[in-house]
Amino acid sequence: MPASYAYLGPEGTFTEVALRTLPEAATRELVPYVSVQSALDAVRAGEAEAAFVPIENSVEGGITTTLDELVAGAPLMIYREVLLSITFALLVRPGTKLSDVKTVSAHPAAQPQVRNWLKKHLPDAHWESAASNADAARLVQEGQYDAAFAGEFAAARYGLEALETGIHDAENAQTRFVLVGRPARPAAPTGADKTSIVLWQRDDHPGGLRDLLGEFATRGINLMLLQSRPTGAGIGNYCFCIDAEGHISDRRMADALMGLKRICLQVRYLGSYPRAEVRPEDVQPPRLGTSDDEFMAAADWVARCQDGRF
Fold first, then answer.
1. How far is residue 305 from each of residues 297, 300, 301, 309, 310, measured CA to CA in Å?
2. What whole-number distance in Å separates Cα of residue 105 and Cα of residue 129?
3. Sign of the CA dihedral 285, 286, 287, 292?
4. Which has the closest alpha carbon to 191: 272, 260, 254?
């Protein structure tokens, strides 16, 4: 397998900045790709060891392009996550004034994060989406657009100036990025982990989603992401992307996954991995009756009953 990481490019994206925070990035060739799909396909094709892509932001939730690519195609697995605080700069060609800006560009996920600023300062500017924020900066450099919302650090890379900085509609906005590789044995639990899965219902019926969520609730498992995505099989047909607190080796998580496997049409496991910026001591202890010790004690009691030793 090539010792390279694919990432959403071109150079100068927030994705690249977040990727370089991983210690192992210093020992890999970092290769930019034009889209999330092409970066993940590089892993599937064996052209890259892993891909690093955005998956969620604190303003709009899950990034649908990434979720859809993980839902479809050959299975992939998440190994790491990184949180990055996001603020934008308005990048322009040298000499451009705010009154000159008639067209702006950025990745679609950026628009909800700068919508109010844009309405206040550039109400008549026309928005055009780009493959990434850095690609929008490149298009500004080429003269296709007047300005791009991107990281201030991208200005020098594309010969642009930051006309405005510190742009954001929501304070403390963050984007979550994930390192995705081919399926393998999950890393050992750390005590502060997350498990990601995709669920497909067998049929549409009243209380169907409640049944799925009940598998987590009865075992005291907290959910951190729940997003529906269309399956493509017609209006009203959805699968559910879920992030849950815990590791597949935890008894309660394994038990929940077995329960879901019994009642769902399909379950896709996307990995168990350390939660970014969370220490084991910060994690709430399991609810009464859901710790590994209590699961083991209950299983031992059943076994003794079966042997007539109760």
1. 12, 9, 6, 6, 5
2. 5
3. negative
4. 272
Amino acid making up residue 1: M
**For residue 172, what pLDDT is reported?**
87
As to burial, measured by CB atoms within 10 angstroms (0-12 exposed, 13-18 middle, 19+ buried), residue 155 is: buried
Tens of pLDDT, residues 254-265: 999 999 999 999
pLDDT at 2: 58
Asked if pLDDT for residue 231 goes beyond 90, the answer is: no
> Does 274 score more than 90 pLDDT?
yes
Which tens digit of pLDDT belongs to each residue from 46-79?
A: 999 999 999 999 988 999 999 999 999 899 999 9
Reported in sequence order, the residue ranges of the chain that DSSP labels E, i.e. its strands, are 4-8, 29-33, 50-57, 61-62, 77-85, 88-92, 103-106, 126-129, 147-150, 161-167, 174-181, 193-201, 223-230, 238-245, 264-274
What three-state secondary structure class fits 223? strand
Decide: helix, strand or coil at residue 105: strand
Task: Tell me which residue has tokens 């929940």.
Answer: 256
Token pair of 241 as six digits: 């992307």
β-bridge partners, 53: 178
Residue 310, pLDDT > 80, answer no
Structure letter (DSSP) for residue 109: G
